[in-house]
Specification:
By secondary structure, the protein is mostly helical. Among the domains are: 153 residues, no CATH class; 162 residues, Orthogonal Bundle (hpI Integrase, Chain A). The chain is 50% helix and 10% strand. The protein contains 15 helices and nine strands.
Length: 465
Amino acid sequence: MASIVKRGKTYSIVFYEGEGKNRHQVWESGLSYNAAKSRKAQLEYEVAQNIHVDQNDMTVSEFLYEFIEKYGEKKWVASTYDGNVGLLENYVHPHLGDKKLRSIRTKTVDDYYHFLLFKGEPVANAGKPKRDKISPSLIHDIHKVMRCAFNQAVKWEYIAKNPFLNATLPEHKEKKRQALTPEQLHKVLEFTDRPDIYDYYIIHCAIQLAFACSMRGGEVGGAQWDRYDAENQMLYIDRVIDRVDKKLMDKLTKMDIMFKFPNLYPGTRTVIVLKQPKTEGSIRNVYTPETVSHKLMVLKRMQDKLKQELGDDGYMDYGLMICQANGRPIMTEHLNKRFKDMLIAMGDPDIDVNEVVFHSIRHTSAGVKLRLSKGDLKAVQGDGGWNTPDMVTKRYAHILDEDRRNLATEMEAAFYQGGGSIKPTLAPEVQAPASLDANALASILSANPDLLIQVLQSVQSANRS
């Protein structure tokens, strides 16, 4: 059994390893209390694997480690795995881990969420400011993992019913992500349209892809030239770029890795990879507008020039469309930083740099496409790789609301103020054609005698009939 020992302001885990004469004591020091409790639970689970544990005596921690091993490693991708394991280690094992699995009731869960909301101490993430309280949003994330875990406990017949299904969650309204208006985005594109400066132009093209193709940051960073059909102006999106813990490379069976980038520094814990997207719905073809196609070709020529100047030793060619000046990949967090740097350099007072991120461009894209397609959800869904049209309506319903508001204004003007008379407008295809310039037509016919003969024959045929 492992023990927790407080030493100064930190905690240590003390346990024994080996057998017989080789048995010795091990200290793992410098841990927070939450980390110490989580590590203790993990060690006890490892011991339990070698002995029979009665289901009545199984603790929540012992079950959760089994759940991760037999469910999470098969069902979760790397980012989901890291996030869920982090939630369990920071907020579940320290508070519920020692309780018997069969003792958890809905009242236990309600008391636990109440404790987290009003007394729980949030774990600070590296590089981010420390929060005062655990947010309702975080409790909702914890609930999703625990509800899934206890559903599995019911399937394994460890418990009769899931106490998390009827738990009372704190109220939480998802904050809408701030999006750039089309006018603001156009200003950003004009500011970054600098083919003479690679660092400006690469972010310019990244924004073009995110907007025109409704691409996520990982999809933009993972786009490759051999997936782009320049003749038909079509991009095939079937991979994303991500940073993965090396320990998870062979552990997670759902993660389909297509390419692993070589590490520049030995001994790193993570590796950059190109992998298949989370869902099959994210794999799609997207057509690029003429302007975007032209911009990409300019970028391709810039990269070809860099290859010649830097040579094979200086330029690492992985076929990436959006990459550093030496060919190395650009991660999503770096796209976001470069994007923010551009916004700061612009200094536009109408753009809130603290609220807008690179992913906001995808929101702007969805809004514009919804308007241009007059609410064609299937078309917008296909371009953006959302699983269902509902995901589009839930996230961008405010855009459709604005169009419905405009429709009410048009009804007021056309029907109510117009005395009930609705005058139909001609559709573009039935409107009168523009008049032809006689001189221009004469020059065309004189330059093409065969066409002139065809016109005369058509006129003669029309006269006979």
